[in-house]
Amino acid sequence: MNTLPVDPLLLSIATPLVVALAIGLGLQKRHSVKLAYVGFGVPALIAVWLWSQFPGDPGASYVFMTRYNTGLQDLGFTLALGLNGISMPLYVMAGIVGLAAGLYAIQSGAERLKVYLMLLLVMQGGLMGVFASIDIFFFYFFHELALIPTFIMVGIWGGRDRSYAAMKMTIYLTAGAMLSLIGLIAIYLKSGAETFDMITLRTELMMHPMEFVTQKYIFGILMVGFGTLVSLWPLHTWAPLGYGAAPSSAAMLHAGVLKKFGLYGLIQIALPLVPAGAAHWAMPLAVLGVVGNVLIIGFITIAQRDLKQMIGYSSVMHMGYAFLGIACLSTLGAGGVVLMMVAHGLSVALLFLLSTCVYHRTHTFDMADMGGLAQKTPVLAAFFVTATMASIGLPGLANFWGELAIFVAAWDFSPTLTALSVAGVVISAIYGLRSAARVFFGPTSEQFNGVIAAHPPADLRWSEKIPALILIIALLFIGFWPKSLSTPLDSALRALYPAVEAPAAQVVSR
Amino acid sequence: MPSTSIALFAFLAPLVSAAVIALLLRRRGGIASYVSSAAAALVAAGALALAFGGERFAFSQEWLRLGDFSLSIGIKYDDLAALMLAIVGVVGFCVHLFSLGYMADDAAKARYFGGLSVFMFSMIGIVFADNLFMMFIFWELVGFSSYLLINHYHEKQSAADASKKAFIVNRVGDFGFLLGIIACYYALGTVSLDGIAEKIGAGSVVTAAIPLLLFCGAMGKSAQMPLHVWLPDAMEGPTPVSALIHAATMVAAGIYMLCRIQVLMVPEALTVIMWVGTVTALYAALCAIVQSDIKKVLAYSTLSQLGYMVAAFGLGSMAVEHAGEGMMHAMVLPVGVGAAMFHLTTHAFFKALMFLGSGSVIHGCHHEQNIFRMGGLNRKMPLTFSTFTIGVAAIIGFPYLAGFFSKDAILFLAMKNNTAVFALLALTAVLTSFYMVRLWRIVFFGTPRSQEAEHAHEGGLSMTLPLVILAILSIVGGYTAIYGNAFAEVWALIPVAHGSDHTIILAVSVAVMVLGAGSALLLYKRLGGDALEAKAPAVFDGLGLLKESFDGLYNYYVAKVQQRFAMLLNFVEQIFLAGVIVRGFAGVVGLVGIGARALHVGSLHAYVYWFLLGAVLLWAFAAGGF
Fold first, then answer.
1. Which of residues 198-237 of A touch B (CB under 8 A)?
2. With contacts defined as CB-CB under 8 Å, which chain B residues touch A336?
C-alpha cells in the first residue's frame, strides 16, 4: 500500500516531538517559533492529505499500515501504525485542531513561550500517535505522553484556582488511565493471544470469545476507567474546573482531542473485543450518560455565569450523547459517536479559542459583566454565534450528523432514553443562545462601558481569525458533506460490528 | 433547460449569494443587497417557470449512510411543492425589492441581505424536501435565519431577547418533531414522503402518537398555542422580515408540512389538530383587538389566520360528489389539505401586502409604530393607503377578493364537519373584521396625530412596486382559474359549497364581515385614544390580561422554575461532588499507595513517576512478571 519514502503516520507523530526536542535543547526563541509552525503544520497537512487519499471501502482493514521493530515483539508490543475507518476521522480532527491550537499558541504571547510550545508539541505528537496506533500498548503510551503536558500547562499557565484544578485533574485522569490500563492488561492476559496487537486480538477473540463473566468485569473496568477520562457523570468534576483554569490552547487540545481517547477506546477496542460485557453494561452506561450528563449537567450548564466554565460544562453534557450512542451497540450508534467526536472536537476547540478572544476584550469571564460586545467586534460575534450553533447541533455544521445518528440509533435501544436525550437539544439551545446574547447582544453594560473606556476593544486580529477559520471551515465542510467521513467509517463498522450487534441482541432477548 | 437543473439553480442561487456576501461583501452593503435580490429574482423566475412549465419530477441522492440507516437529500416536486415554491419565490422577490428601499440607510445591510438569502435557501429546502429528515434539516435552518433576522437590531435588548425566545420555543416544537420522525422511521421503515404514502396505502397503521409528535413541529414553526409566544415578539425584526418570514412563508411551513404528511393522519390526531387551530385562531383574534403597535396587530392577526389554516387541515376529509363517466359517485377526499393550502396562498399575498404596507407606513413616519400617533395617512400616502385597503378587504372576506374564497372554503368545511368549530371560526371572522377595520381606520383616517405622521411621505419605486404586485394578487389570487393547470392537484381538494350550502355560507360570510366592520366603524370615531378602553375598560383590560397571561406563565417558568432548578443542581454539584466525593476519591487513590499530596503541582517529577510506574507495571504484566 505504502509506496512513499517515509511513513506519513510516523512523520506526523515524530515531527512535533522532534521540534519539541529541538526547542527543549535550547533553540533560540525566534527559531523555536518558526520551527513550531512546522511542528503543528506537518501533522495537519499529512492528516488532510491522508483523508483525501483514504479509500471509500476499507472494510475492517487498516490503511497506510507499517510495523516497526522495537525489539519487544516477544513481549507482544509492536509499534504498528495504521488507520482504519474508525480512527481516520479522529486522526484528521487531531491534526486540524492541533494546527489551530498551535497557531493560536504561537502568537499568544504566553510567558515562557518556548516551554509552552514545547509542551503543546509533545501533546500534539502524542495525539497523532493515539489515533494512528494499532497496538494497544502504544495507544496507551501516546495517551500518557499527551496527558502529562496537560497537567503541567494547567499548573503553570492556568488561570484561577490553577493548582487545585491541576491537582484534581491529575488525580482523576491518572486514576482513570490506570483503571483503563488494568482493563487493557486483562484483555491481554485473558485473550490468550499474548499480544497487544488489535488486529490479532480481534481475529482471536472473534473465533474464541472470552467467557461472559470475564467480559463483564473487563468492560466494567474499562467503562469506569475510560468513562472518567471522558467525564462520565458523576466522575466528571475534574472537567469544568480543569478547563476553566487551563490556558486556551491546552483546553482546545484536551477537550477537543485528548478527551476523545476514552470514547475511542470504547468503540475501537472494548466493544469489538468484549461485546457481551458491553451488552451487560449498556443500560447503566446509557442511563448515566442521559440522566447524568445530558440532563443534570445540562441544567447545571444553564446556571453558569463564567463563560469558560459554561463551555466546560457544555462539553461534559455533550459526552452524554456519546455514551448513549455507544450503549446502542450498533453500527449506527457507534458511527454517530465517531462523527460527534470529530464535530465536538472542532466546535469545543473553537469555543475555547473564541472565549479567550472575548476575555482579551472584556477582561472578565463573568457573563453578567458583559453585554453588547457585538457592536464593537462584529466578526468575533459572528464566529461565536457560528460556534454556538455548531455546538447546539444546527444542520449545516458538523455536529448535527452525529447527534442525529445517535438519536435514531437510540430509539431502537430505548425510546424513553431517546426522548430524554433529545430534550438536551432544548437545554443546549437555552444555555448556548443565552451566553451568546449575554456576551454580544443588547446594550453595552455599565461594567463593560468602563472596560471599553480603558481598553477600546478591537475586532479579531488575523492571528486569531486564522485558527478560528480553520475550525469553522472544517465544521462547515463536514456539515455539508458528511459522507467524506461517514463512508469509510460505515465500511469499517460494518465489518467489525456484527460481532457487537449479535451479543447485544442476545442480551435483549434474554 | 431541464426542470431539475432549473430547480437546482433556484435552490442554490440563494446559498451562493449568502456565501459570497459572508466572505466578500461584509462591508459592501450596497452590492450585497443587489446580489441577494438577484438571487431572489432567480428563485422567483425559476419557481414560475417550473410551476407553469408543467413538468413534475422527483430525484434523490444519498447523503449519509451508517449501517442500515440512510439519509437522503432529494427533491419531490409535485403540484403542492410547485404552489409553495411559487409563493416563496414571488413574495420573497417582493420583499427583497421592498428591502432595497426600506433598508437603504441601514449600517448592517450586508448582514441583513445575507440573512435573507440564508432564509430563501432554507425555505426552498423545506419545499423541496422529499423525506422528513431533510425537512427537519431545513426546518432548523429556517429557524436559524429567523433568529438571525429577528436579532438584526441586536443592540436592542428586546431584539436580543426576542430572537433567543423564537429559537428556543421552536426547539421545543422540534423536540417533538424529531422524535416523531424517528418513531415514524421505526414504525414504517421509511421517512420518504412517497415511501410513507406507499406503506399507508398498503395497509400499515400508525398510532396517533406519531402524527401528533410531528404536529409539535408545526406548533413551533406555525406558532400554535401554547407555543405561539415567540411570534408577537418576533416583530422586533425589520418589517420586511416580518412580512416574508413571520407572515407569508416560514410560519406557513408548519401547515405545508402537515399537508405533506396528510396520509399519516388518524382521526384522533386530526381532532387534536383541529382544536389547537381553532383555539389559536380565536385567542389571537381576541388579543389583536387591544394592540396599539401596528405590527403587533398584524402579528396577532397572522397567528389567528395560521390557526384558521391548522383548523382547516384538522377538519379533515369530506365526501365529495364527483361527476365522472356519466354518473355521480361520492369520494372521500382530504379536502382539509385543499382548504388549508388555499388559505395559505391567499393569506401569503394579503398578509405580506399588509406587512409591507405597515413597513411603508413605519418608514414614512420615521419609525413610529404606535397607531394612535398616526392618522390622516390616506392623503399623505395614497398608494400605501389604497393597497393596504385592498389587503384589509381581502382578509375580512370582502366578496370576490382573495380571502373571501379561501375563508368560505374553510367555513363550509367546518359547517359540514363540526358545528362547534364552525361557530368559533365564524366568531373569529367577526373579530378579524373588527380589528382590521379598527387598525385601518385609526392609521389612515382623521388628522395626523404626531409630527411624524404630519410629515409622512411615500417611499420610492422599490417600495411601492411590491405593494402593487401583492395588491393585484390579493384581488385575483382567489380565482383558481388564473393559475391554469399548474396547481390542479391542490385546487381539486378545495371544498366548494353547492346549492343551499352555498347560499348559507355566502350569507354567514357577508354577515360576519359586516358585523365586525360595522361595529369597528361605529366604535372608533374619536381616534386619539383607544375607544374600547374608554367605553368598556373591563373588556379592554380582560383582553390585555389574556394576552399577558401566557408570557407571564412562561416568564414565571423560566425565572422561577427552570433557573432555580438549575441553580439548585449547580449548588449540589459544587458542594456535594466537589467537596465530598473528590476528597473521598483522593483518599482511595491515597490508599492505593501514592498519596495525593505527593502530586504537588509544578513538580514535574511526580508526573513522570506516575507515567513510568504505569509503563513498568504494563511491562511487568506483559513479560509475565506477575
1. 234, 237
2. 66
C-alpha cell at A358: 472575548
pTM for the model stands at 0.90
Which of A151, A425, A493 faces B67 most closely, judged by CB atoms?
A: A493
In chain A, the residue whose alpha carbon lies closest to the alpha carbon of B173 is A426
d(C-alpha A265, C-alpha A326), whole Å: 11
| Beta pairing, strands B318-324 & B69-77 | unpaired
At which residue does the C-alpha cell 529541538 appear? A22
Is A3 a member of any domain?
A: no
The one-letter code for the residue type at A149 is: P
CA distances from B535 to A199, B36, B371 (A): 86, 49, 19
- Listed by number, the residues of chain A in 146-185 with a beta carbon closer than 8 Å to a beta carbon of chain B are 148, 151-152, 155-156, 162-163, 166-168, 170-172, 174-175, 177-178, 181, 185
Identity of the residue in B69, B174, B607 whose CB atom sits nearest the CB atom of A405: B69
> What domain range includes position A272?
8-509
Question: Helix or strand or coil: residue A194?
Answer: coil
A residues 43-72 closer than 8 Å to B (CB): none
Q: For chain A, what is the domain count?
A: 1
| Residue A328 near residue A315, CB atoms below 8 Å | no
Residue to mutate among B601, B611, B619, with most A CBs inside 10 A, is: B601
Residue A2 lies in a domain: no
**ipTM of the complex as predicted:** 0.91
From the list A148, A389, A405, the residue facing B66 with the nearest CB is A405
- Alpha carbon distance A441, B210 (integer Å): 38
B218 grid coordinates: 408545526
Q: Which residue of B has its CA nearest to A385?
A: B148
3-state secondary structure B175-226: HHHHHHHHHHHHHHCCCEHHHHHHHHHCCCCCCCHHHHHHHHHHHHHCCCCC
Pick the closest to residue B253 from B80, B376, B397, B409 (CA basis): B80
pLDDT in single tens digits along all 510 residues of chain A: 445 667 888 889 989 999 988 888 877 878 888 888 999 999 999 999 999 988 888 888 888 888 877 666 666 677 888 898 899 999 999 999 999 999 999 888 777 888 888 899 999 999 999 999 988 888 888 998 888 888 888 878 877 777 777 777 887 888 888 888 888 888 888 887 777 888 888 888 888 888 888 888 888 889 988 998 898 888 888 888 888 888 888 889 988 898 999 999 999 988 888 888 888 888 989 999 999 899 989 998 988 888 988 999 999 999 999 999 999 999 999 999 999 999 999 999 999 999 999 988 888 888 888 888 888 888 999 999 999 999 999 999 999 999 999 999 999 889 999 999 999 999 999 999 999 998 898 888 887 788 788 888 888 888 889 999 999 999 999 999 999 999 999 999 988 887 777 766 665 444
Question: Smallest Cβ distance to A170: which of B71, B178, B599?
Answer: B599
In a domain, A71, yes or no: yes
B 104-133 → A contacts, CB under 8 A: 108, 111, 133
CA-closest candidate to residue B246, choices B223, B225, B226, B217? B223
**Domain annotation covers residue A1:** no
Q: How many helices (H) and strands (E) in chain A?
A: 23, 2
